[in-house]
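Two entries, shown back to back:
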Amino acid sequence: MVLVERRIGLLFAFFLCLILLAGMRSLQLGTLQGGKLARAATSQQVTEPIVPAHRGTIVDRHGTELAVSQAADDVTATPYLVTDAAKAATQLAPLLGVDENVVLKQLSRRDTGFVYLGHHVPGDAADKIRALKIPGIDFTPGQRRTYPREFLASQVLGGVNMAGKGYAGVEYSLDSKLHGTDGQRRIVRDGVGEDVQVRDIKRAQPGDEVELSLDANIQDDVESVLGGIGKTYRPKGATAIVTNPKTGEILALANWPQINANDPSAAPDYARQNRAVGITYEPGSTFKAITVAGALEDHKVTPDTSFNLPPQIVVADRTIKNAEDRGWATMTTSDILAQSDNVGAITIGQLLGKQRFDYYVRKFGFGKLTGTDLPGEEQGIVPQLKNYSGSSMGNLPIGQGEAVTPMQIAQFYGAIANGGVLRTPHLVRRIDGRMQAEPAARRIMSASTAASLRTMLEGVLAPGGTASEVKPIPGYTLAGKTGTANKIDPVTHEYSQSAYVASFVGFAPARNPKLLISIMVDEPKGGIYGGQVAAPAFGKIASFALQYQKIPPSK
């Protein structure tokens, strides 16, 4: 009997100890660590992911979509929750567009509780993955930026990185407008990971739509013409700009080689650059119009001023002649510009004088940024007057020794076309439906000087001019200027005898211009002259654009 009572006492003491231990543990969990454990439990059941704002669409002036955003998810996994990794990999691989072995390797990892299976998976594929209801698979909402026209204006549009930030082009310069404001969502899940409550804490605000001044049809034609140059002359690259000189609006801006905006990494760095603003080059003979414009403004010459010109001219230690030898010649200012005579242009530059030449070069917008709304603009190089050598006025007036961007040349010739009033070329037309203010205009030459230049530049495309081989456009007069410039050899630092820049810039109709077209071809092969390589492209673009825009023929 005593033994039984002793055993009962020990059992009672044992159970009493268990109850005390349970009570102490309950006190520890419920009171001392309650807050911490509650937060841990909540963190496992409640998530508050960021909801990306819908990125604004980029369209051309007629509403053609150039850049759009589509729903896309990042697909992730918690490997230890995936019960059948092999089966899951077989199901997921084709929907993710990833090799099955790669997916299996990720799902089989035990060194981490989180792995990425796919970034920016399109919405339809993500929905199919959701429908599989594979344990341990999760989704983070996002977007996928796509470019419906693929190659069209790709260097202008730029791109968006994995974080949804613009890194180049319009996507970069207007990122704050396009991005919008991200939202936040609260998701409560049950013990098996199913959503039981989804609520938006902060609603995402979509980004603004951006309308560009580009015309997709003109842009497409320009890119096709540049493609023809690429096929014929196999250059390092080519760039073309089309503007309305009356407003400064950019109607087309193309670079060759083309790149696919949906796969920019496949293209070399040079091709991805918007060279209309991002490179500088010696302009060659297109700069002669700057020399002549300054001399007209200072009344040093008129279009009919006659010069008796020698075959070559000596300036300090340099002897300069023309690309093609000639004897003594009597030429007017108009002839000098039409035939791109080096000796004649230098002679006019000497009449103007170095101080006034430098003044007009800067007044006409060279050596500084144009202020265009395209990112990555270079300002070019114009030597300081104090650094002129004795021979500087033997090379600067003919476009050697200074560096310009294609956009600066387009801007200056646009002023000639616009009666002497310079308008900064610009691309952004509307943001969120609101018309953007045009950049301020400024007069850089008199209306009479601009009119004289327009008439003289018609001679460039006339018989005997340097662009006479441009096919005429019935009913329209054309005007412009050729340029051919040696590049500097990076090894010898001397002018190369094999690498050239061929260019042409012109407008139509010549007397009342509605289109300004500038073309620069970098290192063409099989032809080097602007009149041969670039000028015919001007004619093709002008022929299409004049008819497409229904611009009336010249009177």
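entry 2 starts here
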Amino acid sequence: MKFVGAEYLGNNRCAFTVWAPQKKSMTLHFVYPKERKIEMQKDEQGYFNILLDEVSPDDRYFFVPDGDKIERYPDPGSYYQPEGVTGPSQIIDHTAYHWQDQQWRGIPFNELIFYELHVGLFTSEGTFEAIVPHLDELAAIGINALQLMPVNQFPGSRNWGYDGVYPYAVQHSYGGPDGLKRLVDACHQKGIAVFLDVVYNHLGPEGNYFDKFGPYTTNAYCTPWGDAINFDKEYSDGVRDFFSNNPVFWFELYHIDGLRFDAIHLMYDHNAVTIWDEIHAKVHMCEQKLGRPLYLVAESDFNSPKVMQVPEIGGLGFHAQWLDDFHHAMYVLLDKKGLQRYEDFGRMEQLVKAFKEGFVHTGEYVKARKRKYGASSAGLSGDKFIVFTMNHDQAGNRVKGERLSKLVDFERLKVAAAGMLLSPYLPMLFMGEEYAEDVPFFYFIDYSERDLIKMVQKSRKEQLAGYGDVGNPPDPQAEATFKACILQWDKRRKGKHASMLEWYKTLIAVRKQYEVLQNYAKNDLTVTVLGQSGIALLRQSKDGQQKLLCLLNLKDVTIKYTFPSLSGSWEKLLDSKDTQWLEKKQKVKQAPTRVKAEETIQIPSLGVLLYEQKMDE
């Protein structure tokens, strides 16, 4: 597939392509290693092209639309911005890297255990390369899929990544193109897939010169960032090609395994053949070419099963989506203050619905939205959803940037972890969660434009106030705000952090060991509410021969529970009140190790019990 940008063809030959349908001329302006200017030729589709000899990788260039004598601009399809978002674009020879993952064939989607991380904060170095030494530790926990927050070029060296400007360029401060390739290569050799967060709903404000080339945006729709990306108005064909080719670019040239699409509900397209149809078709062809599975995951605010349905029946074609309702339903029950943020949650029946169906809001009136909202996902299998106890949004959109470990106590953290990892969904950890990391995760930027900095500082405070948070958030522009969020890896070997790490390892090991926990069929799951204090999850294998019973107590009271009247007895596999899992060593009454059918036991306050059915001989 042909991409825009500078495609290096080898032997010092390079093809340059830029889309500018309303421009009459385009000059290719080299600035390194020597300055020269060359006029490009325009085709009938609005693309300016030129094929040049005597060009080398690492040469740097700008484009000059319509002979502008004052300004020159980076390539919208740039593969690398070594001097930042306003500097020249650099030619990259993507064939120069020698991959070592020839045997990699991916991982079945329903076996994935995700780990979301921010490259800049995962280590003190803040680079792709610095992640590699930690891969063995992640694999030992049971992680087999990294979910990287956006890595395309953004302003400065500190950003969540959602203010990226060049969708094809890899952030220079993280290590650039080769750094990302080395990380992906190393992950594959460790049996870890790599997912990348991509943003197609807007472009960042600083270093954004796309309007100098063509109508990439339209004021027909409004987003929180301003005008929407132009997917269905005049001249939108070039925009659609630019974005629909981008997934293939990551899959082919960087060996990425899957993409997570940010806020798809803020992408507008009313064409008969939508941008999602085009992306799905191109990715399917790429999948056949590469001979390995390629996955598409959505962040969606629609609460619609259509997101995961195939395009042939009107769906958007995603393999799965993040399930915010699961987080909200569980969090509010573990932290009473959560009601201030999620006023439509707080009943145990909603958590039951989240476990059994997926979406909690399925057409009823939602106070926070002041309208009816959502549709049922009961007919979708569990592997269509990714669940979490927190993610970058849940922590980052707070005045103090608190992780769940700062909002609830140790026992509640264990309940949340068990609920996620024993659920009939695909789990995702947020970096550091596995050892109860407690450093904050703030919002941060590194802009150079003073007015833009002031605007962000003001709007950020207003946004957090809208969530019900009080107080002043730290200055997002200050480097100290960023540094306060860097993970402290040494904690994982000490005290309660080490205990929590072992708790996560054990839960993940159990999830992988028992076939029943890899069964995503809703018909093989029974969820029972235990008053307003807890729930019982009865899960069985596809053949019905194996059954596991998970008992979750989310409150500070004990719960009486009578085991189901099924044949055989129940043997305890896991008890969160065992001494090894306690924050402080103390004597706690243990649940019985073996229980008969219809026998009644006490589920300890904030306790997790996991039992396996045993057929009596």
